[in-house]
């Protein structure tokens, strides 16, 4: 009997190890792949890609990236960590109704969204809310992206509630967003940090067109102590209701705004509105920009001031309006 037990002992040991062993959870990857013919049960490798951004997100490490292997509709996503979504060579799309396409709530994170087509079904009875809704972020880069059809909100709604947030928009097209039911809370891009929060936005080489209410809104309404620093360069803001509105009511916050090398044209109401309630809370400047064929080119409200570098063209508006002053270049 003793001899038999000695022979069986290794087998018992192996069985006991198997019973007591728990396999570790699958490690998160730094690069996850998605495909229109993938499956979210897959490990998101290149040879076994996932089906949706949501499925790939859970398997992607903080600071990693999700890459589109081929064309597909990859669904909406909430982002709470540093992440890159990159679809440079194919049609990676998100299509949503009655909700946000991408929500970002990731304090201090670096998020990159590149090469995506984001559709809000604006011609249907259930259009999307916001194409990209920013609650919190360290830095968000949006580049080579098309956003359209978000009639219940904005193409990009940048409303961080933690100071230091930065938004960089480069080579982006935003259209057919904003709705008549939401005249002050929808349009192309909204730059409106929350109370006590300072934020920075840079918009480069971007086309913002055919949006209701406003193309770009820079706004501190209702947000005491908010501060927004916005720079727009090389962009076209055309065929909206209003092109650009910078609004700083009394006892709210401050706004610094620069528009350079751009076109503000064919907006059915105003090209640029500068609206401030307190002297010194708005510093707005425009250089080498054409403001043309709007109903009113420049509209100053309250003590709002819009300064020119002296090289702009304000022409062919029904009412041109005028800059507050011309300042010297340094």
Instruction: Give me the number of helical elements.
Output: 2
Spatial order of the strands forming the largest sheet: 1-2-5-8-11-14-17-20-23-26-29-31
The poorly predicted ranges are: 1-6, 8-25
Mean pLDDT: 93
The proportion of residues in beta strands is: 35-45%
Cα-atom radius of gyration: 25 Å
Helical coverage, percent range? under 10%
Q: Return the structural class.
A: mainly beta
Biggest sheet overview: 12 strands, parallel
Q: What is the CATH C level class, in words?
A: Mainly Beta
DSSP strand count: 31
CATH architecture assignment: 3 Solenoid
Note the overall shape: elongated
CATH topology: Pectate Lyase C-like
Total domain count: 1
Give an overview in words.
The chain has a single domain, classed as 3 Solenoid (Pectate Lyase C-like), CATH 2.160.20. The chain contains two helices and 31 strands. The strands form three sheets. A twelve-stranded parallel sheet has the order 1-2-5-8-11-14-17-20-23-26-29-31. Strands 3-6-9-12-15-18-21-24-27-30 form a ten-stranded parallel sheet, with no helix packed on it. Strands 4-7-10-13-16-19-22-25-28 form a nine-stranded parallel sheet. The protein is mainly β and 330 residues long. Helix content is 7%, strand content 43%. The protein has helices at residues 2-20, 53-57, and strands at residues 29-34, 60-68, 72-73, 77-79, 83-86, 92-95, 102-105, 110-114, 116-119, 132-136, 139-143, 146-148, 154-158, 165-170, 173-175, 187-191, 198-204, 207-209, 216-219, 227-233, 236-238, 244-248, 254-260, 263-265, 270-276, 282-287, 290-292, 296-302, 307-308, 313-315, 325-326. Strand 1 (29-34), helix 2 (53-57) and strand 2 (60-68) form a beta-alpha-beta unit. The longest helix has 19 residues, at 2-20.
